[in-house]
Amino acid sequence: MNKFVNIALVGLGQIGNYLYNELNIKKKEIEIKTGKHIRIVAISAKNRNKKRRFKINKKIFYQNPLNIFKDKKIDILIESIGLSDGISKKIVETALKKKINVITPNKALIAKHGDYLSQIAEKKNVCLEFEASVAGGIPILKTIKEGLATNRFKKIYGILNGTTNYILTEMENTNETFDKVLQKAQKLGYAEPGNPKLDLNGFDAFAKVRILSALAFNNRISKHKCLMEGIQNIDLKDIKIASQLNLRIKLLGISEIINNQLFETVHPCLVSKKSYIGNVNGVMNAIIMQGKPVGESILQGEGAGPGPTSSSLLSDLLTIMKGNINKPFGLSSHKRKAIKAFDIKNYSNSLYLRFEVKDKPGVLSLITNRLAKFKISIKRIIQTPDKKNNKATIVIITHKTTEINAKKSLNIFRKNKNILKFPILIRLYN
Amino acid sequence: MNKFVNIALVGLGQIGNYLYNELNIKKKEIEIKTGKHIRIVAISAKNRNKKRRFKINKKIFYQNPLNIFKDKKIDILIESIGLSDGISKKIVETALKKKINVITPNKALIAKHGDYLSQIAEKKNVCLEFEASVAGGIPILKTIKEGLATNRFKKIYGILNGTTNYILTEMENTNETFDKVLQKAQKLGYAEPGNPKLDLNGFDAFAKVRILSALAFNNRISKHKCLMEGIQNIDLKDIKIASQLNLRIKLLGISEIINNQLFETVHPCLVSKKSYIGNVNGVMNAIIMQGKPVGESILQGEGAGPGPTSSSLLSDLLTIMKGNINKPFGLSSHKRKAIKAFDIKNYSNSLYLRFEVKDKPGVLSLITNRLAKFKISIKRIIQTPDKKNNKATIVIITHKTTEINAKKSLNIFRKNKNILKFPILIRLYN
User: pLDDT value at position B15?
Assistant: First the structure.
């Protein structure tokens, strides 16, 4: 790389635009740290005239990002469009094939095509860096690849989505319903105004889990079927009951090696209010790793937003500018192995079950008999009558049981006239 | 560097010996990740025949580490003797001058001679890595240098010494005195059996603060006079009173830019039991950074012991083996500037003051008048009489005041017959 480094910036949304400004104001500092001078030689976005927080230089604007390659000599391309396929994939693929280093915060792209793209990068001996794709400003990928390199990990889990964590925290603090708090989150820019689904249903967190697993366990990005649940069905009522039990609901992403098999999941968990993870609130993200010989390590920080994301993008930029050619996943693609999936059916947890029932004799025993039939033993029962409506709420905390057992035992409650709705199930984190 | 990497290991105490074993069992994995094969070609320690946890190969043993250079071609030298000067300095200096990369967990050496040694490393174009010198297994230095590179930090603080944190936690949990708990810590290997002074008096944490500042603020390691207090004088009584006030005592290391001046300190702090830092217990370390644009970031992990320390040493090894030549402090020595010191006298905090007094009329007003004279206003007073002995304990929580004011106002209590001992002062963390 020369003393001058030519950068192309593709995608000028919230993140791309913030980064554009950061690059301009930090030129001098980057020069001090790397001895090289950066030049933004091309920018591209859908809409040239959209109102942006920071003014862009329209002289270097490209409507079609693929044209950049024809006109300019690019050293580093930063992709922040954010699609898992389409133009995002096309532009990254093309850049790598042309021996151009790529930086991207695009978790959807990496979770889906990371293996393929890293092979191109390795073949062409350029970098593909994606620190910002997981947990925003927290440098978790570099920590696994470098700071904790040679540790043997058995588990990595945490709060990987700031939107859902904000919603859960806010529901508990304000006693407002999911819908109300979601609206607030959208107003504050924490949730997508149009379609917040990918945050809420766990998909966003799950893409991050896939990337984390690949790094922590040196396997190829898995395509296994998985257990993915979001927070769409979390009711204020469950948050309140949890609170009385000194528990709190958190959407956790978990990746774990069980019997040499990989288990990846995202689902709401009940955690102790006294636990560390139970106190990571609002838009904060946190990741906990269990490694040998390092022991338990925790990283916490702001998981989203243009500031933290730019912090990680710039960190990738410096890595590349220092001339280090890293393997995208920390080791050669052909050394990364496929790993067998742990069978979801055998995933085992204590469960929180909430039944809404008619307040009639025999209903409780119907439930407890059914659980007993599947050897699900009960740790705690709280029955709260609603006399006026002749109803009751029964909350049961079970001892550990498998997914398959839980599913089978609860199935029957779909059509029982005394069970007013299908029971709510939330797993306890253990 | 060749396909074979020759390693010399100098110092075979707890850490060196554990690392020796790790290197042997992780050879294969290191080869997969770096494409290079390591060979331990020389080891050295004071005592060849000392009983060690892992067996060493005596054929490559050197009594005098300086002789290694004569006999062997070394690529990387790992120093884990631990002295701030003497043979530790000599061996590192010699290695660097001979263009040999150096890895060390030796915070005393780096805090004292880091600037000088890094200049040699840069001149000779080799690496001097010292990730393990701060916070054991937590990759905090790489995080500042790389993961959060280009962030502007204004403050970095945390629990940097596991020994003292264990003692404080254990005193609170067991109601045992400082001396009793210290003995327990020594038995468990958390405190030096012979001379635990450097942990207890804050010196160990302070060396780490100096290193952290240099990295976070890009300045040369400061030599300023500083405020350094350990936990030697923490009484069980203060821990109990703090607990009643929902506070907890933690030994914090703090480095901060105030009015463009550097302030570095280590002293016990009263923190809220509800705060994050108030819940980092036992031998855990934690570091909190406030940076722009990343926001607040937290790293937590095991701060000491051979396992976590080896994790960081191996991470340094991989960095070097991947062929990256990094500046030891993240940028050229000649670009790192001296930074003016913030005057300790103006350091300002709320204070916890505990007076042991004779239970006589006029004593409280003596104290409050004295504080008022120095414009120290009082937030809270708790007076607990000890009728039997005709004594009383007066605890005062003040509003913010400066060090100089506090010192001047308390001075008078050295010789007053109604004040039974010089008051205890603990700063509240704000």
Answer: 93
Residue B73: predicted pLDDT: 96
Residue B10 and residue B123 share a domain: yes
Contacts of A322 in chain B (CB under 8 A): 324, 326
User: Which candidate, B403, B414, B271, B392, places its Cα nearest to that of B345?
Assistant: B403
CA A248 to centroid of chain Cα atoms: 19
Please report whether residue B382 resides in a domain. yes
Q: Name the pairing type of β-strands B378-386 and B391-398.
A: antiparallel
pLDDT digits (tens, 9 = 90+) for B235-261: 999 999 999 999 999 999 999 999 999
Residues B104, B249 within the same domain: no
The answer to whether residue A324 is domain-embedded is no
Domain extent at residue B366:
345-428
Give the domain-ending residue among B102, B133, B164.
B133
Taking the Cβ of residue B292 and every Cβ of chain A, the question of whether any pair is shorter than 8 Å is answered with yes
The answer to whether residue A135 sits within a structural domain is no
Interface residue of B34, B127, B299 to substitute, partner A, most A CBs within 10 Å: B299
Mutate to test the interface with B, among A25, A31, A299 (most CBs of B within 10 A): A299
| Residues A121-133 pLDDT 10s | 999 999 999 999 9
Q: Is B319 on the interface with A (CB under 8 A)?
A: yes
Number of domains in chain A: 3
Return the CATH number at B405.
3.30.70.260
A97 within a domain of the structure (yes/no) = yes
Residues 6+ apart with CB under 8 A from A385: A359, A391, A392
Q: Is A150 within 8 Å of B326 when comparing Cβ atoms? A: no
Q: Which amino acid is at A407?
A: K
Q: Is B297 on the interface with A (CB under 8 A)?
A: yes
Q: Left if phi > 0, otherwise alpha if psi is -120 to 50, otherwise beta: which for B107? A: alpha
Q: State the ipTM, two decimals.
A: 0.86
Stated as kind and residue range, the H or E segment containing A289 is strand A284-292
| Confidence band of A289 (pLDDT split at 50, 70, 90) | very high
pTM: 0.91
pLDDT digits (tens, 9 = 90+) for B196-206: 898 999 999 99
Give per-residue pLDDT as tens, B291-337.
999 999 999 999 888 999 999 999 999 999 998 788 999 999 999 99
Gap from A285 CA to chain B (nearest CA, Å): 10
Tell me the chain B residues in contact with residue A296 when contact means C-beta distances shorter than 8 Å: 301-302
Contact B160, B140 (CB under 8 A): no
User: Could you tell me the CATH number of the domain that includes residue B63?
Assistant: 3.40.50.720
Q: What is the DSSP letter of A51?
A: -
Integer Cα distance of B32 and B38 in angstroms: 11
Domain boundary residue among B74, B102, B133? B133
**Token pair belonging to A371:** 């659980």
Mean pLDDT of the B249-276 span: 96
User: pLDDT digits over B62-110, tens only?
Assistant: 999 999 999 999 999 999 999 999 999 999 999 999 999 999 999 999 9
